[in-house]
Amino acid sequence: MFKKEHRLAKTKDVKAAFEQGRGFFNPYFSVRHNAKTGQQRRFTVVVSTKVSKNATRRNRLKRLVREFARINMANFLPGDYILALKPKANQLPDPEVVVVLSKLLIQAKVYENKRIV
What we know:
By secondary structure, this protein is an alpha+beta fold. The chain has helices spanning about 10-20, 55-70, 95-110; strands at about 20-25, 30-35, 40-45, 80-85.
């Protein structure tokens, strides 16, 4: 779970990040990054029912992505992030989800650490 200052929770903030942010995609993830001044990093993770009809699987995927972002918070550039999983992400084994996400973030140049965790 993110600390309150690291959550992107308000609807207007999510809409602003979605509309104004830069988008990065691969077959498994869609990432939106809205760069902001300051040192604040805020995240929201989106997993729709298209990814999995099973709520426990969706929650598991959300927990994996949230924990990756929480542990590696300092490696992200400041700004707001929307991390959305695509239906194909459900086919990945759990450890592979984090690896694929980190590769996308490194490629998008919003994640400063070159080491894949």
